[in-house]
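Collaborator request, handled under Task 6.
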Amino acid sequence: MADHPNVEIARKGYDAFASGDMETVMAILADDIVWHTPGDNILAGDKVGKEEVLNFFGQLAQESGGTFKNEVHDLLANDDHGVALVNQSVTRNGKTIEGPSVHVFHMKNGQMTEFWAFNDDQEEFDEVWS
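Structure tokens returned to the collaborator:
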């Protein structure tokens, strides 16, 4: 059975992010995307619109020295929603963390309109990003 088209779109986005192809990533995001990052750290908060999300991705790369990675284990999606099960890793300020994260997103007309990240150990995530 073929994957849902939104699974293919999400996979394309994760692959593009991993290779640094921000042009492809931005094409997948709706102009008014809302990106929610949990926690109490320098990354936390809501980013609204492609420009803020692109700046956020730049901050991820800069603050981590390019070490931030998402390894996708599985993607599920239907016409409106998607879920990515990922393993995130990053090294920052001499500390390395690695662990599971769940990404939940809304899709509309082939674009991501809203995104939430849920980290397995938010306290550890906050520590490395503070």
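The cover message to the collaborator said: "The radius of gyration is 14 Å. The chain has a mean pLDDT of 95. Please let us know whether this matches your experimental observations."
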